[in-house]
# Entry
Amino acid sequence: MKKYVHFILILFLAFFLWAGISKFSPFLFSQTEIKPLRYEVEVVLIEIPLYVVDKKGNPVKNLKPEDLTLYENGKEQKITHFVLVQNDSPQIASLVSEYPAARRQFLLFFDFAFANPAKILKAREASLNFIKEKIFPNDLIAVATYSGIGGLKVLSNFTNDREQLYHIINTLGLAESKQRMLGPVGFSFPTFTQEATDTMLKTGSGSALGDDDFMELLDKVQKRKEQIYGAYVSDFISELNKLSLALNTVRGRKHIIFFSEGFDSKVLTGKSLAGLAADAEQFAQSGGVPTSDTDSRFGDTGLRMRLYDALKLIASADCPVHSVDIGGLRTQAGSVTEVEGAGRTLTSIRRGQDTLTVLSRETGGLVYQNVNEVTQTLENLLEVTNTYYILGYYPEDKKKEGKFRKIKIKTDRSDIKISYRKGYYEAKPYKDYSNLEKRIQLVEYIVKDLQSREIQFESLVSAFRGREGICQVPVFLKFPGRQFLERKKSVKLEIYGYAISSSGAFKDFFHQTITLSPQKVRKKLELYGVKYFDLHLLPPGDYKIKMIVRDKETGEIGSQIREISVPHYDKGELGLSGPVFIPPAGDWVLSRGYDPQNPTGRKKGFELPLDYPYIMDNKPFVPGVIPTLSGASPAQFFLRVYNLRLHPQTKVPQTEMSFEIVDLEGKSTPFKNVGLLRNPNQVEAGVFDLFFQANFKDLPWGSYQLRLTFKDSISNQKVVSETPFVLE
# Structure
């Protein structure tokens, strides 16, 4: 008992005697700006990547907006944004944060249907090196495959998580790995049983299958190819359509790197090789897909027209296809590829190269033929895509009918050549989205730090020590209830949470769908709203916690990002869970995606730290998420302290604490109307739960932060933490 009294006295003395203020550290929370629930007019900025080269093919860096004239559907538009993007510049990180379309994006597309297995193996090895050594930190990479058996598979959405990409390319989706788990949007995560080692440090390709097994599987994919060749081509064209529609939802240019040997053009047309080559040259000179003379180019069959339409969609989605002919330099003697007993001659190989040429030139991409060194090709693509401009304008027509709008950019400068997307599709009703489009829409918000307030919510994120190096990061969301009152039917909210490390690695996720019946809980929604709880399990480090909420019917989205540092508790670092207010009881609609009594999915088993951290009087409580407090009555808040040292003689901690009130303008004022509510509770060695009471009666109404500076005088460690609140 004497220990506790001594500890209390030290705390109270600290409140009055210690006034040191340390520099702010963004440990837990940031004030969320309160905005109207709905906007009457939505302003949409159209961003267009513009590639500009001189006559020698070198990037032009002195272009000015007055050198250009931009038209949408024939009507001149005012260029409101104009910025030069150089991916190897120090400013690239801040630039892509301001302009999501400025980020460079590559889709590595492996063709299992029309390529030799040994050549795919070479492309895979070059891609592993590309991911490990060549790409820049802000580059986003996606991975897809096509086979006649499995069709199109998007194995990884756009991400800069190199370890995830390395793992996926290493296996190319041909075997399920027991050490990775897919999240709801397609990102993969290491399981908690996986050792914390970098798989990219392994030598060679490191395939989980082995190269012999890999080639055997690809051989099975190609089995009976000659007999059903036409069906493969037809299916491939259909999958291109699906891919282009999905990629159209991604902002910016998406460079598709297509590793293939091409399919025989004879399936499409009986034209001679020279005739098809002449058509390809005409495509290149036209600067896009011509709107006439399609019959003379492809004939009049449905298959040929479907290819034409698919390439038009890909070009419209700003997805140039860079075809990499991975067959290598061939000779007549060594040119025959055996497929199910049928030989592919040099002439048919050249016809395959011509289809690759059409794919690229129709979409504005580059063609790399007879490639022996795929690594050099990828390095060249990094170089030629390094420098470009972002043009932005606000179209007057704000319709959302999914129609195509043509874009044309003219320049008076005769010394340059410009390349840009020829148009874009308006946003279409969410009900018309495919499942792949819905997934990629979420990817945009996850990897590009996009934020939206279409669905209103506030969030609270904190950190608690776990065990075995895995820490608890609870996440609370609070939804104002009035935004749902006008809905006559049930509201289904898809809730996604992603924890991404400072290096871009995906470390954990949660996903849940909750259903609200506004008419049944109308009173609760009018007076309060909805509170939701979930949990991340993370090793120590710095993270972005990304929370996305989407209305399953309307497609409206709310998203927020919180930054948090999870301390190295096991190294003796002083750590705070962060102060959280204990709000008075309210009739909220409560929901949780994670149930500590019944863990599922990735959080099931393995002796994980799954207990609920917020406990008062042996009962769990729901902390306030930017709570609204009353100046007329005291407010209570909770704090957990880790690794607090004990004095060797007195066996009690020695601490110094000071509190401040910070207003919206950042002005801070010392705050002393606060004290311990009860004796500290020692949870375990060096860990204490502290309960405080504060009186805000002399504070004007408004939004504030309560800042706590906590110092352990014995270890001389100091931590600063803040929590927001609203006073009425």
